[in-house]
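Students often ask why we bother encoding 3D structure as a string. The short answer is that it lets us treat folding as translation between two languages. Here is a chain of 310 residues written in the first language.
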Amino acid sequence: MGDSNTTMMTEFILLGISDDRQTQMVLFVAFLLFYLATLLGNSLLIVLIILSPLLHTPMYFFLCNLSFLDMFYTTSSVPQLLANCFLRRLTISYTRCVTEMYVSLFLGAAECYLLAVMAYDRFAAVCNPLHYTIIMSRKVCIQLAASSWGSAFVMTLIPRLIQPTQLCGHNIINHFICEVQGFFKLACSDTRVTDTVIMINSFIVLAAPFAFILVTYGRIGQAVMRMHSAKGRGKAFSTCGSHLVVVSIFYGSALSMYMRPQGKTISGRDKIVALFYEAVTPMLNPLIYSFRNKDVKGAFWRLLGKKMSE
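And here it is in the second language, the structure alphabet:
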């Protein structure tokens, strides 16, 4: 009797965001614009960093990694969201669902660790300016970036190892993408242990890097307050301000999604938060770093002037 409800899933049905066709069309236009802006903004930022010698510094090396990551992160989910706006029945194969779920999880974890590394870079620049080039040498930067990607891969393996092998009942996921919380809710067995493991995993991926960033910026704030030069304080706030805005947006949405007890179903609020960090945040990052950063704006106008003169 215990196995009578066990189902071998070959595909899943995604409930999406809304059944209303007009709402779906509005969402399609909005998120198509978000997606195109994400690809354009991040690719332009990568090109500027590569072509401008003045941007060949540790901060922009990590920013280049972040832009590369954001493009793939949003590409892992938004194209399917756009396609689903035209489908009456949103189905996805088991293999594609699982692949999408873990790719998105890996990229999200990598961004968490990369933002923490970028905070450490700002700490070294503000608190140890005389030794900054030694602390953040090219070799160290590559090692830190590689550690971010490698740690994300390891942390993605944990949900994979505890992934339920038997799914019960319906094959409906109450989400617009294959998301780990919605997928695990289809498990046959008691999910309390699984939920605990995911919560611990979320703490290591989300809460720990976020706490590190808070402590780091506390130290940076102390160092800035001790500066006698108003120009020096302004420069420190300028270089750190963009990163703080990005951290606040990304971690604010991610922590509200994962660092809380999970209910039996995915709520409409959960979907809205997921939409924000899947589609909106990757678009905002290059805008924030561009509008608040004189070096990036200067590199853009120099590149544009060079092209026009040719």
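Translate back mentally: The beta strands are 6-7, 11-14, 91-93, 167-168, 172-173. Keep this in mind for the problem set.
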